[in-house]
Structures are given as C-alpha cells and as structure tokens.
Write a structure and sequence with these properties.
This is Phosphoglycerate mutase. GO terms for molecular function: phosphatase activity. 29% of the residues lie in helices and 19% in strands. Helix 2 packs across helix 3 and helix 4 packs across helix 5. The chain has a six-stranded mixed sheet with strand order 3-2-4-1-5-6, with helices on both faces. It has one domain: 3-Layer(aba) Sandwich (Rossmann fold). With 197 residues, it is an alpha/beta fold.
C-alpha cells in the first residue's frame, strides 16, 4: 500500500526576518508568514487534497502554520523539531559556519548532523508506518526537511539544490511494504507579491 506524505516548512517568522539562527528556539509567524501558509492552504484546496491526519513539530511556528493550512486535528511531536544549534540559538546568521555544517554545533551543545538526520528520518518513518490516512501533512522546519530529503535521496530522482523556502512543500510517496520514501515533487509557491507586506 502507498501513502502520500506532504512535508512542509513553516511560514516566515520574526527570527527569519531578523536573520537570526532559529533551531530549538522559537519566534512567531510574521504577517507574511501567515499569508504564505494561507497560499499553501489554497494549493491543497485546488488540488482536492484533504487531510484527516496531520502532525507538527512542537515549535509554535510549525503549529501555527499547520493550523492556518488545515482544520484537521493534529499531533505535536518533538522528533520533528529543527536542528538544535546549541549556544548559537537566536544569534545572528552571520555566525553560521559555511555549509555543510557537519558536527560543528555539537561542540556548542547542539546536535551532530547525522544524529539530527536520524532523529527526523526515524520520526517521520514512525508516523507514516502508523498513519491510517492515505494523505498525511507534516509541518516541520527547513533543515529538518532537507535532512529528510538527504536520508532518502538514494530513492529519489527529484532534487532541490537551493534552500528550502518558507512553506515549501515536499511531496513523498511512502511504500508501506518496503518502508521506503520517494520524493515525487517539490512545490515552491511564488510569494514575491508578499514582499511589501
């Protein structure tokens, strides 16, 4: 049996706007971030996609995004949280090392990259293996989405080299028998008309 996973990044936040490092720390959605979520909602509506099951990171920015996208009941799960950046949390982004980060943040109380990837991949796999619905929405974070893509890139032909923007949607097919994910599509919305909001 096949299921469809829509893995989505949250909308723009205050810290995104201020160029601050945001992992386990949190900040609210901006007005633009709220509008981004409503555009994602419209996308699902026009595609006829209705969610009976939804899941979110425990971070407020992810929960608030999900609540704007769907009225479906949802479950908050800690394993869907963003990378823990340790003492770099809420500091300015210019302090970030060059990509790939690797295990840089582990020396400052954060997570090693592969530990983070394994956490997210295992959490999403557990959700899909237990889900009863055919289509599942998960709202998480930019690096979390990227690491999940990396965990399954050997099974996927679709690729996104640029950063995962706010409210980007990754459409995966989950094969319940093989317990494998394949990335089918990357949905990036045009938010350029929201820039002045």
């Amino acid at each position: 049996m096949k299921k469809t996973l829509y893995l989505m990044r949250h909308g723009e936040t205050l810290f995104n706007q201020q160029k601050k490092i945001q992992g386990w720390c949190d900040s609210p959605l901006t007005s633009k971030g709220q509008q981004q979520a409503l555009i994602a909602k419209k996308y699902f509506e026009t595609q006829g996609i209705v969610f009976k099951e939804a899941y979110s990171s425990t971070s407020e920015r992810a929960c608030d995004t999900l609540e704007l996208v769907t009225d479906a009941p949802y479950t908050r799960i800690k394993g869907l949280k963003e990378w823990n950046f340790g003492t770099f949390e809420a500091e300015h982004e210019y302090l970030n090392p060059k990509l790939p980060y690797g295990d840089f943040f582990a020396a400052y109380g954060g997570e090693k990259e592969l530990d983070f990837r394994t956490r997210v991949a295992n959490t999403v796999s557990d959700i899909l293996s237990q889900a009863q619905a055919d289509s599942i929405l998960i709202v998480s974070h930019g690096a979390a989405c990227r690491q999940f893509m990396r965990a399954w890139e050997h099974k996927s032909l679709v690729e996104q080299k640029s950063r995962i923007g706010n409210c980007c949607i990754l459409k995966f097919e989950y094969d319940e028998d093989e317990k494998e994910f394949e990335l089918l599509e990357i949905i990036n919305h045009d938010f350029s008309h929201l820039e002045e909001v």
